[in-house]
Amino acid sequence: MCTLEKRGSLFILTLTGDDQNRFNPTVIASLLSTLSQIRSQVSPGSVLITTAHGRFFSNGFDLSWAQAAGSPSGARDRLHHMVDSFKPVVAALISLPMPTIAAVSGHAAGAGVMLAISHDYVLMRSDKGVLYMPEVDLGMTLPDYLAVGFRSKIRSSTALRDVFLMGVKVKAVEAVKMGIVNSAHDSAESVMEASVRLGEELAKRKWIGEVYAEIRKSLYPEMCDVLGLTQRTIVSKI
């Protein structure tokens, strides 16, 4: 599940499930509902910060929920359902009419990393926590939108190779060098403090949200194609 707090122009979305904040249908529905609520309240200067309670920012899809189906085919169906259901979350973030910041307060794996990089800025703690894409170790292929999302956001072929084909667990300082993370901070508290400072600086610009979202979409055309997002031309100040 997740909660939403409003601090002036800042919307703070917090994952509040168990310690691992895994994505199952209930959590995904909560995320979509909260993002829809944020979109309905947007105004010039709005900024989203996404963070989490617990040791994990998010440990990705809830494989235990999938396996609880009781059969291999049932587990696959549940996994496919989660993968399909999470795609609109990514689309909502890419089209959200405001700057977005991920305050990665702990470990992030699989879809948890995808959630983070779907934001405009990613800040991560360096004392604890790694980014980990486990698909090569689990024997799972990548959803199309996840593969395209990483290619769109991470331009280093070496980083993509190490993260996906070697399953490297990346700490914050290395993630900054790879271009996955914008900055590293020495505790969960300092990650959040830095995220709030950045959010407040961005809020001062009072950009028009729809224009901001369309510019963002224009930067990631392949990602928008996979997510089914169309682009519009907006001229507001001439």
Automatic annotation (TrEMBL):
Its EC number is 5.3.3.8. The keyword Lipid metabolism applies. GO terms for molecular function: delta(3)-delta(2)-enoyl-CoA isomerase activity. It catalyses: a (3E)-enoyl-CoA = a 4-saturated (2E)-enoyl-CoA; a (3Z)-enoyl-CoA = a 4-saturated (2E)-enoyl-CoA. Coiled coil: none annotated. GO terms for biological process: fatty acid beta-oxidation. Pathway: Lipid metabolism; fatty acid beta-oxidation. One of its GO terms (cellular component) is peroxisome. The keyword Ligase does not apply. Pfam families: ECH_1. Keywords: Lipid metabolism. It comes from the Eukaryota. Belongs to the enoyl-CoA hydratase/isomerase family. This is Delta(3)-Delta(2)-enoyl-CoA isomerase. It comes from Acacia crassicarpa.
